[in-house]
Design goal:
Blueprint (H helix, E strand, L loop, with lengths): L1 H24 L6 H10 L13 E2 L2 E2 L2 H6 L6 H8 L11 H37 L8 H10 L1 H5 L15 H9 L2 H21 L4 H46 L9 H12 L4
Antiparallel strand pairs: 1-2
Helix pairs in contact: 8-10, 9-10
């Protein structure tokens, strides 16, 4: 029984000791010098250099001030006290400038994100114009280039006669084939059809596709113009040749031999003897 009583007193003593120590540990520390330092580090004020100096007959008598700010203080302390206002939270302080810069960067980031979103949305919208699978649905193709480029698809890839070459007749075809003009036209036709096929089958930006359409159309018009020009020119030359051949055949007899000078004079005299 006595042993239990001693143990109870010991536990009560420990509890009281713990309570007293807890009250001592939570005692608030209120040092005016530390409070002044906190004010200097915030936006409140630059100054209040505690501890304050005390003089007696002009002699510094406050040992704490002399060792913190006075003659016995480290040089860095005196430079700090006599230096510029370096409060980080003052209106032009370093921390406020960082906050302002951070805000500016956030605004710039929002602008960049908005621009990126716009570019992305525009890219998604233009994706249908990049792929060759949807070229037939393009409005400009339907309104203009489909009709203007249709003759290219209707023209044979390798024409074999004057009808396929859209010439007037067979002699014109033979004349152009003999001179090698048709071979040169075939090479130009292959280039036109290849460019047209690339513009319809390759994936590319919408603007570039229509540039290829336009270049193909201009080249096709020059091809048709040259074809028509050579067609007319060759037909005209053949007509002149036929006229010349027919004229020569009627102007000279088949068995014609030049006469002598005497025979010519006698012929003239016989022709005009009854007129004079």
């Amino acid at each position: 029984m006595e042993t239990l009583f001693k143990k109870g007193k010991f536990l009560v003593f420990l509890f009281l000791a713990f309570a007293v120590s807890s009250q001592v540990s939570v005692k608030r520390l209120n040092d005016p010098s530390i409070v002044a330092q906190h004010k200097r580090m915030t936006f409140e004020s630059w100054g209040d250099w505690r501890p304050y100096p005390k003089y007696f007959l002009g002699i510094q008598t406050n040992f704490a001030y002399a060792t913190v700010w006075g003659i016995w203080a480290p040089k860095i302390n005196r430079d700090y006290k006599d230096g510029d206002d370096i409060r980080p939270l003052k209106p032009t302080g370093e921390q406020n400038l960082r906050f302002a810069q951070l805000k500016f960067q956030e605004e710039e980031a929002k602008k960049i994100k908005a621009a990126s979103d716009t570019i992305y949305k525009r890219s998604v919208q233009d994706l249908a114009h990049w792929t060759s699978a949807t070229v037939d649905a393009d409005p400009l193709w339907l309104l203009y280039y489909k009709r203007m480029l249709k003759p290219i698809t209707e023209f044979p890839d390798t024409p074999q006669n004057f009808i396929e070459w859209r010439l007037k007749d067979e002699p014109t075809y033979e004349a152009l084939n003999t001179t090698g003009t048709l071979k040169r036209w075939q090479d130009e036709l292959d280039l036109i059809k290849e460019k047209y096929s690339m513009s319809r089958s390759m994936d590319m930006p919408r603007g570039k596709r229509f540039v290829m359409y336009h270049e193909t159309l201009i080249r096709w018009r020059k091809f048709v113009q040259e074809l028509r020009k050579y067609n007319n020119r060759t037909t005209l030359l053949l007509d002149y040749k036929n006229i010349l051949n027919s004229h020569l055949s009627t102007a000279l007899p088949t068995q014609w031999t030049p006469a002598s000078d005497r025979a010519i004079v006698q012929n003239v005299m016989q022709q005009y003897k009854h007129k004079y």
